[in-house]
Design brief:
By secondary structure, the chain is an alpha/beta fold. It has helices at 18-26, 46-52, 90-100, 119-130, 161-164, 184-187, 195-205, 227-245, 250-268, and strands at 5-11, 33-39, 60-64, 69-73, 79-84, 105-108, 114-115, 134-142, 148-153, 158-159, 176-178, 210-221. It is 36% helix and 25% strand. Strands 1, 2, 3, 4, 5, 6, 7, 8, 9, 10, 11 and 12 form a twelve-stranded mixed β-sheet that branches. A hairpin with a 5-residue loop joins strand 4 (69-73) and strand 5 (79-84). The longest helix is centred in the C-terminal third of the chain and has 19 residues, at 227-245. The N and C termini lie far apart (43 Å).
């Protein structure tokens, strides 16, 4: 039996990408999915584009939800749009989508990233093969147009909490969870910087193992910005996670930080 996969996409300033994102999901070889688009009070034309993307995208307002949300359903019953009245950030947008998800399996997708056509099919088969609650895949860095640059991030076959502290190899757009093996509460993201990494660590700290499928099934779009600024920001965020969220000792944090920095540098060479 093909179980339902809930795909959660935060939508904020996604106008340049969102039509492509919807088409990409509709092009997946695994077809038993629901696409939950969570508009995080985006100030651009994201919602307008979502509603006008294709003939089967005429949306009808269903009801007012919790937390100032409005839900709309497309003629394609697999597609839903949740509109938040105020911007609260990606973590809370994903949590809103998680609350609304009906599927056994949960997959996160950022609006500017790309999945290969067989991503859901292959990852779900891998998850069942490993009898896993948490899986992730390899990915490739892409340019502004999501064209692969040849820089590929390979992933280990297994990742435990201790090993995860020294490497941020899990990419949000590649993860999948089984809600029958893991409570949704653990998947909820905290409202902190680098909320995705904090979530993976929280899950692994609870005793779960993440299984890596070392096959590129996603492209991480990286627009040209100040790389030096991004690196400094990433370093600050990862250090704060060690000390404030994980409450690790200074010496252990320093060891993990050095290992993380070396791996992060090598990954981008």
């Amino acid at each position: 039996m093909n179980e339902l996969v809930s795909i959660i996409v935060p939508v904020y300033r996604a106008a340049p990408y969102i039509a492509e994102t919807i088409a990409m999901v509709k092009g997946q070889t695994y077809e038993n999915w629901e696409l939950i688009l969570v508009d995080d009070a985006s100030p651009d034309d994201s919602v307008k584009i979502i509603r006008g993307t294709a003939e089967d995208m005429s949306f009808v307002k269903k009801h007012s939800g919790h937390c100032g949300e409005k839900e709309y359903a497309a003629q394609d019953q697999r597609i839903r749009l949740l509109c938040k009245e105020k911007n609260e950030g990606a973590a809370k947008a994903r949590n809103t989508g998680l609350n609304a998800a009906r599927g056994r399996y949960i997959a996160f997708l950022d609006a500017d990233d790309v999945w290969l056509a067989r991503k859901l099919e292959k990852e779900l088969a891998f998850m069942k093969e490993k009898d896993a609650a948490f899986v992730f895949t390899a990915y490739e860095f892409g340019d502004e147009k999501a064209q692969g640059t040849g820089k590929i991030v390979a992933v280990p076959p297994r990742l435990t909490y201790k090993k995860a502290l020294s490497r941020t190899v899990i990419f949000t757009t590649t993860v999948m969870f089984d809600t029958e093996k893991m409570p949704k509460e653990l998947m909820r993201m905290p409202d902190v910087e680098s909320e995705d990494t904090a979530t993976w660590w929280k899950i692994l700290r609870a005793g779960y193992t993440a299984y890596g499928l070392n096959e590129v099934l996603a492209v991480y779009r990286r627009p040209q910005t100040s790389l030096s600024s991004n690196k400094f920001t990433a370093m600050k965020r990862i250090w704060n996670l060690y000390r404030r969220e994980e409450k690790l000792s200074f010496p252990f944090s320093a060891v993990c930080f050095v290992q993380w920095a070396v791996r992060a540098t090598l990954r981008r060479i």
